[in-house]
Structure formats: structure tokens, C-alpha cells
Amino acid sequence: MSTPSSAPASAATPPSRCADSLADSFATSYAGVVAFIAVATEGNFAKAGDRLGIGRSAISRSVQKLEDQLGTRLFVRTTRSTSLSAEGRRFYERCQPGVERIIQAMDDMRELREGPPSGRLRICSTVGFGRKIVAPLLHGFREANPNISIELVLDDGPTDFATDRIDVSFRNGRMEDSRVIAKKVIPMQMMLCASPGYVAERGLPTSVDEIANHRCVNFRLASGRVFEWEFKSGGQLRKLSPNASLTFNDADLVLQSVLDGHGLAQMAAYQVCDHLRAGRLVSCLPQYAPDDRGHFMCFLSRQHLPARIRVFIDYMTEHIRAMDLQILDNPVVKAA
């Protein structure tokens, strides 16, 4: 019994044609994905073309080829608007991190080739820390790095690095998000304070339990939850939600209310250290202050940081640590 002969070599697809097909597919996919990301980000084809430096028609053709290749519609187009389809939104979420990494890699190589760090930095910080600590240091950083432009966004809410295009975020407290790198700049000391006028009228608590007998001023977080006061007692963390006579969603208003003698509040040392040293505030229960909080600079887990981000992190770390923001070892606080 004879066996079937193998197919002639000419019936197989020539290797060169396979290579050409792969190259064509890659070229179409990459150009289409870049165009697609630009349209999704800018909201329409014309703005996407301006951002990429090519015409609207070229953007449209690239997206159309990508849609044909994927066999699905990525945008819902009308005469007045362009929006992502359900499939387009899913594709956007999957593609964006990869495209951003490619862009970052190219920016990094360009910076290495062209010399001094340059480009745009978008920084986010909690409102209080951003106003008092971060913003005043930006002027010195800009003088040292004139080719870097900075936008500072103050927001007490969580940071969405991808959607908000954030390069570095300053966060307070404890960091539990494994998706980002969190560099601890300094410890975050929490101080229970009152004004001398309040102390003369009402005295100070001598224990955590006595706080319930005092007027208190609370801070409401961006999440809507009221900030819990924390104390370390017997090696254990104790949280307290005091009944407040006043509650604010702005840390500066909490501080001003305490300075005006309206009650006690637990605030970060960076807010109150100058007032404590000048005698405008008095601290109490420093022996119960929590010791596991910090001020952090957070950024995405990238193996190779762009030079502009790297120099910013180094500059801010050095200058924040040089500031006299720690107060717990001060004799004035210990005496209180």
C-alpha cells in the first residue's frame, strides 16, 4: 500500500511572504493602536491628529485598519461626538500601559541623548502637605532644572496615575498599595494640640480616655469618612473618633480653629511644628503618638525612571528631609 506523497514545496507559503505578512500586521497594529490611544485620550480625531502631528484622515485610516484587523468597532461615531464602544474601552484599558511604557522608554532615551532632564512633570499631593511643603520647594527645583515644567494638583483623594497622568504623588499615612513604589521621605508625626487660651480655660487631657471630656475639631477625608485619631498604647494601636464641636474637610481650617481656641485636634507635625515652637499651640499626650506613619513619594513601578522624574524625587527627598519638621524630640513638646 502506497503512502500519500508530501505536498510540493511550492504549495507552502514562502518564508519571505510570511515575514512580509508579519511586518505588515505589526506596522498596521502599532500605528493603529497609537492612533486609537490618541483618539480615546483626546476625544476626537482632529485633536488626536494635532497631538500626533499628522492629519485627521491619516488618524481615521489607521483606526479603520485596526478595527478591520480586530473585526470589531472601537468607537461610536456621530456627527457631533466620538466615544469608545464597550469593546473599545476594554481594548483601551489593555493597550494603554504598554503604549505608555514605549513612550516613556523613548523619552528616557531622548533625555539621555539630549542632555539635561527636560519635559513635563505632573505632580499630585494631599492639599495640606502640598500647600505647605511641596509648592514652596518647586521654585528652587525649577531654578536647578529650568527645562522641566511642573503642574501641581492638590487632591486628598486616591491617585489614579494612568487616568490623571500623574508622575509622582505625595501621600500621607500608611502605604498598602503594591501597585506603586512608595518612597518614605520622613516619618509622619501626629500631634494632639490646643491653643494656650483653650488650655487656660479647659486644661489638657492627661490620658486618651479624658479626650471625651474636651471640645474637639475633626477633619473629614475626601472619601467622606471622618479622620480617626490614633494613639499607641501598650504597643497597640488605638483609634478614636471623638465627638466634635466642629468638622472641616480642609486641614488648614482645622488648624485655624485650634489656633482660635475652639478645641483639640490631632494634626500632622508639619502643620503645627512652627506654632508649637512659637508657643501658639501646646501639645499633649506625646507619649501616645503613633510611630508607624509616614510622608511618601509614590510613582509607578518602572524599572527605568525618566530623568526628569528621577531628579525631582532626589531633589524633594533631600530638601524635605532638611526641613525641621520633626517635633516629638523637642524639649517644649516633652515638657508638655
From TrEMBL:
Keywords: DNA-binding, Transcription, Transcription regulation
InterPro entries to which the protein is assigned, alphabetical: LysR-type_TF_proteobact-type (IPR058163), LysR_HTH_N (IPR000847), LysR_subst-bd (IPR005119), WH-like_DNA-bd_sf (IPR036388), WH_DNA-bd_sf (IPR036390)
SUPFAM superfamilies: Periplasmic binding protein-like II (SSF53850), Winged helix' DNA-binding domain (SSF46785)
Xref: Pfam families: HTH_1, LysR_substrate
Domain HTH lysR-type: 34-85
Family: Belongs to the LysR transcriptional regulatory family.
Name of the protein described by the UniProt record: LysR family transcriptional regulator
Species per Swiss-Prot/TrEMBL record: Pandoraea pnomenusa
